[in-house]
Write a structure and sequence with these properties.
Blueprint (H helix, E strand, L loop, with lengths): L6 E4 L3 H12 L4 E4 L24 H6 L15 E3 L6 E4 L2 E3 L3 H25 L11 H15 L3 H10 L4 H8 L4 H11 L11 H10 L15 H15 L3 E3 L4 E6 L5 E6 L4 E3 L2 E4 L3 H9 L6 H8 L7 E8 L14 E4 L3 H12 L8 E9 L2 E9 L11 H18 L7 E7 L1 H8 L35 E3 L13 H13 L4
Parallel strand pairs: 1-2, 1-10, 2-6, 3-12, 10-16
Antiparallel strand pairs: 3-4, 4-5, 7-8, 8-9, 11-14, 11-15, 12-13, 13-14
Helix pairs in contact: 1-9, 1-15, 3-4, 3-8, 6-7, 7-8, 7-12
Amino acid sequence: MSGDFDAIVIGAGHNGLVAAARLAKEGKRVVVLETSPVVGGLLGGSDPVAAMPFGIHPKIHSGLGLARHGLRYGAPMKTLSLGGEGRVEIDGAVARGVSQAMAANYADLHRKLARYSGALARMLTKAPPRFRDGVVGDMLTMAQLGLSIRGLGKADMRDMLRIILSNVWDLCEDEIGDGPLAAALAMDATLGGGIGPRSPGTVLTLLYRMASTGSGGAGQRSTPVGGAAAVVSALVKAAETSGAAIRTSAPVARILVDDNDRAIGVALENGEEIRAPLILSNATPRRTLLDLLGPQHLNAEDVARLRHMATNGMVARLDLDLAELPAGLTEADLAHRIVVAGDMRQVERAFNAAKYGELPAVPAVEFTGRKTENGWRLAALAQFAPSDLKGGWSKAKKDRLAKSVIKVLDGAIPGFGGKITGAEVRSPTDLEATYGLTGGHWHHGELRIDQMLMMRPFAGAAQYRMPVAGLYLCGAGAHPGGDISGLPGWNAAGQAIKDGGAQ
């Protein structure tokens, strides 16, 4: 058996590293165990899956002193829409390349959504309430949320409550009409999940995404200088300088539980055992509880809720190699997020195909890119590409998706297809196999009404505490969910510290 620790963190993705750094900063002896030879999860490696990360949440950036470890941000990222009505540029609340009237309507809508997301932002840095046993802290959390919403004023409060559970399609149709601006908002509301623009609750997911952005401000992505690698490097330094140990190529086989039904450590696949009274898992809820812990330690209701979680991924990653950039696409463009979806109808039609297990003929696409020794490499995300594809994923299906994506890009950027020298597709099932993502889902589970706040990952397992004492969930399957804010890891570590090893 290895030397004992105060805490074990399973998985060195960004949330696991955030959790380890916070625990170590509080004086805990921490070890992080990562299956892969490299750290970072979806941010790791030379071609990270999450090639366009949000900035780490400001509370974490300051709390862990990430600036001291080299993490800084450039100008807020713009969104460039290259589909539909020519080139449209979105810079926060400012839209260029559309009519003056549409730009004004978009600015009004963006400012309104920014106010509403600000009212929700306070909830993201707190453990969600359980509403069990009349706990005062839970009541205070909800009271603070109520006060934040009430602070918007009577008219805005009424409007927020009117739209928050509605769909982004109706919101955009009412406020700005369909087109590239609406398509960009629809992509933000649905990216990574199995929901389309017409799905109920997509306004809430849009507000959540806006609220969780980093230093760029509500709704505006601010990416780090140096990209995903800079985030991983800073988090590793923050954890290690605080005393945490990080072990790669150390896959966990199971979580150890004593006779009192308390987690006491882990066993690695090589047979080594490591003990600690706190176990924080950055793995998905299903992998943590069914695979590593085992259903024998759960009640029947918890097992049923886990197995009914919506976890089917809907995004495929394409790496496209180009000899040179086509006319109409510049190196400066690749510093920003580029969306190729002319209107919400394209996004909705792509979702309609995927929800029936089919590949969309015209996928909605967003991409970024970087210069390489032999030209350029573009990292493209195809939305929607279902993990439960009829007949399963095969090379032929991947080739078909690649051709569809290239056709979409060629339509928006004439001459694009002729510059391609190579293409690689990573399907949701590939992501599941490589990163342990249940269903290949980036967010470890749908961000929808019945899997958010005190219902995330499922009823009875909120506040990061899992049904077995001493075990916490610190990944995207916990509140507030996916993206690269780091908040699930930060909040989970805070809850474990607050509990002091006892639940």
